[in-house]
Design brief:
about 210 residues, alpha+beta, OB fold (Dihydrolipoamide Acetyltransferase, E2P)
């Protein structure tokens, strides 16, 4: 155990120990202050909007800075580099290799593996942790729905939304009594906050979704 601690605070591992601790604290501080949030960046970030992906923009995309955010990207990079440098230093202990050579190889190897780690793992991690806001209820206006209850009246009725961002959602619907019954396809035309329901209207045959 003491050997591992000695390697952690000596070259080359200590070069990555410091940024590992710093990025971990930065990441944890971000969780406390603003909560965890990631984006949807990819390998084609056009940061300046000129339609051309430059070398810097490609590097940002390759490191998934848009998807992960800077703190988490640096944390993953530092961890990959730190773990590689630590294992390399432990592996060469006892060998007749100069300390300077071990430091150089450990730093270079750690950086390469750290970059590869972020490149290969960062994308799936970013997509897995990405969050998105639920669509507003008003987004259902203009979408079609299918009545699920026996009938719909001014005070009763449910329907399943068939199209749009709220597709497959079950919502309350209202219409003049006797206008719709189970299985009818209708159009969501208005959200009534007082009834907490949507008003629906008939839809022309050509606009009905095909089975």
């Amino acid at each position: 155990m003491s050997d591992i601690l000695d390697v952690m605070v000596s070259f080359p591992t200590v070069v990555f120990t410091v940024p590992l601790v710093a990025s971990l604290l930065w990441f944890l501080l971000g969780l406390v202050v603003s909560g965890f949030d990631v984006g949807d960046g990819d390998l084609e970030l056009d940061l300046d909007g000129d339609g051309d992906i430059g070398a810097f923009e490609y590097l940002v995309g390759a490191l998934h800075l848009g998807a992960l955010g800077v703190p988490l990207s640096l944390l993953m990079l530092s961890f990959g580099a730190w773990a590689t440098s630590l294992l390399f230093s432990l592996a060469v202990q006892g060998l007749d290799v100069s300390a300077a050579l071990v430091a150089v190889i450990g730093i270079v190897l750690g950086l390469v593996v750290g970059l590869l780690f972020v490149w290969k793992v960062g994308g799936p991690v970013g997509r897995a942790l990405a969050t998105s806001q639920a669509p507003e209820r008003s987004a259902a206006i203009g979408c079609t729905c299918k009545v699920r209850t026996v009938e719909v009246s001014e005070s009763f009725g449910d329907a399943e939304i068939l199209t749009g961002p709220m597709r497959s959602s079950i919502v309350k619907v209202r219409a003049p009594a006797g206008t719709f019954q189970r299985g009818d396809v209708a159009l969501l035309v208005e959200l009534d906050p007082e009834r907490d329901a949507y008003w629906i209207a008939d839809i022309e045959e050509q606009y009905r979704p095909q089975p």
